[in-house]
Amino acid sequence: MKIAFAKSELPTSGAIVAGVLEGRTLTSTAAALDRQTNGAVTRALAGSRFKGKSDDMLPLIAPSGLELSRILLVGLGKPASLDALTLQAIGGRALSHLNSVGETTAAVAIDAVDGAKLSPAEQAANLAFGARLRSYRFDKYRTTEKPENKPSLKKLTVMADDVAGAKKAYEPLDRIGDGIFMTRDLVSEPANVIYPESLAEQAKTLSELGVEVEVLGEKQMKKLGMGALLGVGQGSMRESQLVVMRWMGAAKRKDQAPVAFVGKGVTFDTGGISIKPAGGMEDMKWDMAGSGVVIGLMRALAGRKAKVNAVGIVGLVENMPSGTAQRPGDIVTSMSGQTIEVINTDAEGRLVLADALWYCRDRFKPQFMVDLATLTGAIMVALGKEHAGLFSNNDELAERLLAAGKTVGEPLWRMPLGDNYDKQINSDAADMKNVGGRNGGSITAAQFLQRFVKDTPWAHLDIAGMAWSDKDAPIIPKGATAFGVRLLDRFVADHYEEK
Ligand code: BES
Ligand code: MN
Ligand code: ZN
């Protein structure tokens, strides 16, 4: 689907989308359509439950007096609450409707609304962003889908008088969209296509945008002493990889310590010898979502030329049971020198992150590290699929992440850390064990990670409940969500970029 911006002008074919405020107050375009259709708009409103709330929609098909195929009235809510997220959601819902009814072209009228927080140009850009995000589809392996079941919309024109302003506001959002789509693609691909080496190849494509990408193989990781990460991958035919991406966008201070993002990239998690039950195991193709988000985030930052030095590191392994697989009870030595007794080979993500986090702080001395991981089933027990878990050793970092999450609609909920939880992972045989018992499973997993960050400001996002969605949402079709890309892009933009 193509998205374009143009001056406001009633189209002569296809569909038009026009806004109606709460209380059924027509925007200027809706009022003009009402006149041209001899009052059909007001009559349709009167005969419906449409009140103008921001999730209301009302289609008028083949309106007489016009050559258009359809008028789609969309509720805008109250002017004061017409913010970026609301507009994105309106764009997403409208797009989904147009796609399902078979429209091929549509124009959206953005009219000046008294009391709105955003300029019409910003409104246009956000509506377009929402429409684009909802248009995502992973259908490359569907060869027999009937055309009438496929999305129909080919072109969406967003009309605002300040065309240049709308395009300018859309440009960075479009680049963030590129990052989100890349993440969704990587997370959606099955594990026979995306495995450590092929995922590293995908990360390498970022070099086209000016990202420096290095890939470390097993030999190099062995030299570095990454026994924790390598132990997870040792049962797989696929070679484990560690990918280091660097975007050096701080023009004024090239020597500025980077911000760092670290992702869990288990390209398939069978559980290893502590094997998972068969039911639902296919979901574990998206156990690399943390790394997919880090890669997509780097793409977004580079794409919009963010003025920041950022490092992205992803640890890529496949967790398989085999004759060479790690066994419960094995003791491995991490790059930090700390030893780990592997009680459960299914608690593998923390083993991968232990070495990736240590390597990150050791080599880059970053301002902070944020890791993302589909780390525990327990975080879904605690928070459902409404918040990702946030764990941090630094209140300022935590507050900033919480705020960014609220702003973009990717909510986090802060969880506790503490010595008594930490004790749960002490081992009699080694410095620590990789599980801490049934209670507080997400917290003991975070305590484990904390042992590998020392005093570096650090936050851990447990995204197990958020990486994949079973139902459509206004700007997130069901499937891979790319949760974290918008959040961390905003977090960087708000606090770490040169002005
Ligand atoms: N990748 C899983 C966590 C997960 C489960 C993510 C479901 C998304 C959906 C992780 O590697 C895992 O297996 N965790 C175990 C830890 C346990 C063995 C301590 C879990 O949560 O059961
Ligand atoms: Mn596991
Ligand atoms: Zn896992």
Task: Tell me what you see in this structure.
By secondary structure, the chain is of the alpha/beta class. The two termini are 34 Å apart. The strands form four sheets. It has an eight-stranded mixed sheet with strand order 8-9-11-10-14-18-15-16, with helices on both faces. It is elongated, with a radius of gyration of 25 Å. The chain has helices at 28-36, 40-46, 84-101, 120-134, 163-188, 196-204, 218-224, 227-233, 289-303, 349-364, 378-383, 395-408, 419-423, 441-450, 485-495, and strands at 2-6, 15-21, 25-26, 57-61, 70-77, 105-109, 155-159, 212-216, 241-248, 259-269, 309-319, 331-333, 339-341, 368-373, 388-392, 412-414, 432-433, 458-462, 468-469, 479-480. The structure holds ligand BES, manganese (II) ion (MN) and zinc ion (ZN).
Compute the separation of the termini in Å: 34 Å
Query: Ligands in the structure?
Result: ligand BES, manganese (II) ion, zinc ion
Spatial strand order of the main sheet: 8-9-11-10-14-18-15-16
Helical stretch tally: 15
**Percent of sequence in beta strands:** 15-25%
Instruction: Note the overall shape.
Output: elongated
Main sheet makeup: 8 strands, mixed
Number of strands: 20
Percent of residues in helices comes to 25-40%
Poorly predicted runs of 5 or more residues: none
Secondary-structure content class: alpha/beta
Summarize the entry for a quick read:
The protein is α/β, with parallel strands linked by helices and about 500 residues long.
